[in-house]
Write a structure and sequence with these properties.
The protein is mainly α. It has 19 helices and no strands. The two termini are about 20 Å apart.
Length: about 500
């Protein structure tokens, strides 16, 4: 039940995140202007690297706390919490030190792409976001304990409230003329308040307190070995998602405007990723349990197909609708100056749809502690991404950088991962892909054709855009329920409809 609630609340959270972006982004861009918005997005990309100081321990917390709960070993839970608290406090201090260094070297790195005033603004923004990262890192253990204990409602509801309050305060500071500095200040305030709530909840409600005596250091070595491999994957993922902005900002003259367009495109991709990861994000404790019970390769394959189909059903519809109507949406939403963000978003979403559909397989590898080769190979592919992006930027800064990232994502997170799934989990790739695409692809093709027809004959505008999107969704949904879904998926739909009807009846 807690997993179902977690999935539901994850999508509610995602809806609030998307709505906050839809409502605020046009106002932010118009208030800040293309150049300041580009600098703001660049700083956000740089700051994301500080979060890599988590070093993969965040995933280890979920895995090991869930494991110790299954084993009913309370002392190991408390020992683990003690080690994690010490680790994260040290990491928070290191984040501040590194952040200060980044502020100092910022002018030298981006002198080619940014003006003097843009550089000064970037340094201020980086200084504030650095402290935000320090607070986030210093309290990460408490957020992950909530996930390990499957307290998804607590975590998700707090995040939803945080989004609502942040949206209101962001509007206020922008109206007051505080600009991007006001935005990052609001983000810092909300992070502090939300993390304080998590700390209080873990200590007073879950009643899990650190135990600093009797720590088995062989246990610490095991955690470090596990986490170091997760770190490599985190570095690879982060580089793939932000290296384009860093290279554009440092190698391209007067790049603030290009960064703004790229930022709009990647903003859409981020929420596309959120929709896919919201489902798998609550599965890690359950995956650990399945692995601990020594599920067979055929059972793991079936689990990957079962979860992957649900993710693919949603993401493929979004991608299909965006391909048909995305450019019109971006022009209406973010202005004609950002129209090329459509190309950025479409290319990257085409890669992430495969990555996110297979993400349950990665969680199985983590739970089995069989992710060494995956980590190393992904780093190799990231190096290829940097080389390709640097090369293609000279051809076309925006599109070239996007294509370089697309190639590296497909090679590193799809091709390489399929080889690893086959080798480590003995997954039948033929069975997996047939199971994923069966019944869904024909529904997509028909919905796409219908969408193109209505796009040709309908005018442009918010109302007509909503009509065109609704028609595509309706056609896809009806076809999917009638022909595309299997019995398990139809039962899920029926169960949801019955619950909605029951709530309406009350």
């Amino acid at each position: 039940m807690s997993r179902k609630i977690g999935v539901i609340l994850s999508y509610v959270l995602m809806i609030f995140e998307v709505l906050s972006t839809l409502l605020l982004t046009p106002f932010i861009i118009s208030t800040l202007g293309q150049a300041e918005y580009g600098v703001y997005k660049l700083v956000v990309a740089i700051n994301a690297y500080l979060l890599l100081l988590d070093l993969g321990v965040g995933n280890a917390i979920i895995r090991y706390i869930a494991k110790y709960r299954v084993e009913n070993d309370r002392n190991k839970e408390r020992n683990f919490l003690a080690v994690a608290i010490i680790f994260y406090l040290i990491i928070a201090v290191i984040a501040i030190i590194i952040g200060c260094v980044l502020v100092v070297i910022f002018p030298k790195v981006f002198s080619k792409g940014l003006s003097d005033s843009e550089i000064r603004l970037g340094q201020i923004l980086l200084g504030v976001t650095m402290f935000n990262s320090a607070v986030t890192l210093g309290t990460t253990v408490y957020n992950n304990i909530l996930i390990a204990y499957e307290k998804f409602a607590v975590s998700r509801i707090a995040s939803i409230v945080q989004i609502i309050v942040r949206m209101i305060l962001t509007y206020v500071v922008l109206v007051a003329g505080w600009g991007s500095i006001g935005i990052v200040a609001v983000n810092l305030l909300m992070t502090v308040l939300c993390r304080l709530y998590f700390i209080v909840y873990v200590n007073l409600i879950i009643k899990l307190k650190p135990l600093f005596r009797g720590i088995d250091f062989s246990f610490v070595k095991e955690i470090v070995a596990y986490s170091s491999l997760i770190l490599l994957q985190m570095v690879a993922t982060q580089l793939n998602s932000t290296v384009d902005q860093i290279l554009i900002g440092s190698l391209v003259k007067a790049s603030a405007g290009i960064l703004a367009v790229y930022g709009v495109g990647t903003q859409i991709v981020q929420y596309f990723q959120s929709i896919g990861s919201a489902f798998t994000g609550v599965l890690m404790p359950g995956v650990v349990k399945v692995v601990e019970e020594r599920a067979s390769s055929s059972e793991l394959t079936k689990e990957m197909v079962k979860v992957g189909r649900i993710i693919f059903m949603m993401l493929s519809l979004i991608l299909c609708v965006f391909i048909v109507n995305g450019k019109e949406f971006i022009i209406l939403w973010a202005g004609n100056d950002n129209s090329q963000a459509y190309v950025v978003a479409t290319i990257l979403m085409a890669a992430y749809i495969f990555i996110l559909t297979e993400s349950i397989g990665t969680q199985i590898l983590w739970a089995m502690n069989q992710h060494k080769e995956q980590s190393i190979l992904k780093i190799v592919i990231v190096i290829l991404n940097i080389a390709l992006t640097a090369l293609l930027i000279s051809w076309n800064p925006l599109i070239g950088a996007t294509i370089g990232t697309f190639i590296s994502l497909i090679l590193g997170d799809v091709v390489v991962m399929n080889v690893i799934f086959k080798k480590k989990l003995d997954i039948s790739l033929k069975f997996y892909y047939y199971g994923i695409f069966k019944g869904i692809v024909p529904c997509l093709v028909i919905a796409f054709i219908v969408g193109i027809i209505f796009k040709i004959f309908m005018p442009v505008g918010w109302v007509w855009l909503c009509v065109k999107i609704s028609i595509m969704m309706l056609v896809y949904g009806v076809l999917l329920i009638k022909f595309g879904m299997n019995t398990y998926e139809k039962n899920i739909v029926c169960s949801v409809l019955k619950k909605i009807k029951a709530v309406g009846g009350k």
